[in-house]
Amino acid sequence: MQRIYLEEKEPIHFKFEQNEDDFIVDEIGLDWKGSGNYTILHIKKVEMTTWDMIAEFAKYLNLNAEKIGYAGLKDKHATTTQYISIEARYEKELKRFKHPQIKILSSKRHSHAIRMGDLVGNRFTINLFEVNQIQAGQIEKLARKSEKLGLPNYFGYQRFGRDGDSIEQAKKMIAGDLHIEDAKLKKFLISIYQSVYFNEWLAERVKMSREQNGGKFLLLEGDLYIDSKGKLFTPKQPQQKDFEAKKVVPTGLLCGRGVYRSTGAAAEIEAKYDDGFLYDKGLRREAIIFPKDIEMKYTNDFDKMNIAFTLPKGSYATVFLENIASKEFKAKKVKKPKK
């Protein structure tokens, strides 16, 4: 399963490390009301998974971790900010909460708990190393190009585990050759199974776009689109003009039950990456995303480039970097920066 990109070019070699100093993620939350029975906490965490952070709050407050709401999972090896929700009756105890890797930045009331997906997107700030002056110019040009033309919305390497062992587990479980008791693990493996199919479908569509459309994503008759309000629809003709204006985006299938499938020419490709027998709920995912608010700063003396950009929810910063580098990144042993 290879992640290929719309432009076929020579790779650009640079390095980056996922650690607390060089990989920063800030969740962009919704407009919380300011009143209600839930407290929305804006949290900063360092070198810690979202689940581990929630477990610390649950332990401190002596409540079930499922009572704590969150909008998305954030990287462990990074400095990240995100929002969580807890019933307002715990506000007094939360004022005394202290943890070396967690800091409460602010709090606000809201009418209901945060649910998965209750965010606008994420702002990434990443340091790239071993970047010379020529490469810095190339990186900036390609980043700006992706802002205008978009890039494939693959699931990144983080989705599939360090050695791809989760993929094999998922396939065996779906085939009935592996029994999993743990409900959370089961759900996780099914999401991996869906993600593998999506990435394979997207790679075929990208390859077709390279060959037939000069590296611009090729829209097909029967594609399903999502508009700026989140409405899914199938037009009679490909929406080229609105797609270029970023008003609509074509979607790909996360196979399962109760989800719309594409039709016509689009369906001929999609059917190869579908599993009509999968009982779990299916979804549609944007095939192309448009990075926004890109900022870059190059430090010539240290061959270091700082790049900041905003992506829609569910998208991967490492995929944005792969698109620029024109090569796949893989999970590796994470090093802590030297102090």
Global morphology: globular
CATH class of the domain at 157-289 reads: Alpha Beta
User: Could you tell me the number of beta strands?
Assistant: 14
Mean pLDDT: 93
The secondary-structure class comes to: alpha+beta
- Helix and strand element order: EEHEEHEEHEHHEEHEHEEEEH
The radius of gyration computed from the alpha-carbon positions, rounded to a whole number of angstroms, is: 21 Å
CATH topology of the domain at 157-289: Pseudouridine synthase
Amino-to-carboxy terminus distance: 38 Å
How would you characterize the overall build of this protein?
The protein has 339 residues and is an alpha+beta fold. Among the domains are: 31-117, Pseudouridine synthase (2-Layer Sandwich), CATH 3.30.2350.20; 157-289, TruD, insertion domain (Pseudouridine synthase, 2-Layer Sandwich), CATH 3.30.2340.10. It is built from eight helices and 14 strands. It has helices spanning 50-61, 91-94, 133-149, 165-175, 183-213, 240-244, 264-270, 317-325, and strands spanning 23-29, 38-46, 69-70, 79-87, 102-110, 119-129, 151-152, 225-227, 232-233, 248-254, 283-286, 288-289, 292-299, 304-312. Helix 3 (133-149) crosses helix 8 (317-325) and helix 4 (165-175) crosses helix 5 (183-213). The longest helix is centred in the middle third of the chain and has 31 residues, at 183-213. Residues 333-337 have low confidence and may be disordered.
